[in-house]
Amino acid sequence: MDSMITAAARALAAGDPLGALKRVALRDDAPALALRGIAMAQLGDFVRAKALVRSAGRAFGPKETMARARCVVAEAEIALASRDLHWPQKALDAARVTLETHGDTTNAALARYLEIRRLLLIGRVDAAEQLLAELNFAAMPAALRAAHELIVAGIAMRRVDSKTARAALARAGRAAREARIPALSAEVENASHVLNSPAARLIARGEERPLVLDEVEAVLASKALVVDACRHVIRNERSSVSLATRPVLFTLARALAEAWPEDVARGTLVARAFRAKVADESHRARLRVEMGRLRSQLRSFANVSATERGFSLNPRSAREVVVLARPVEEEYASVLALLSDGESWSSSALALGLGASQRTVQRALDSLAETGKVQSFGRGRARRWMTPPVPGFATTLLLPAPLPSD
Question: Is the pTM of this model over 0.85?
Answer without folding.
Answer: no
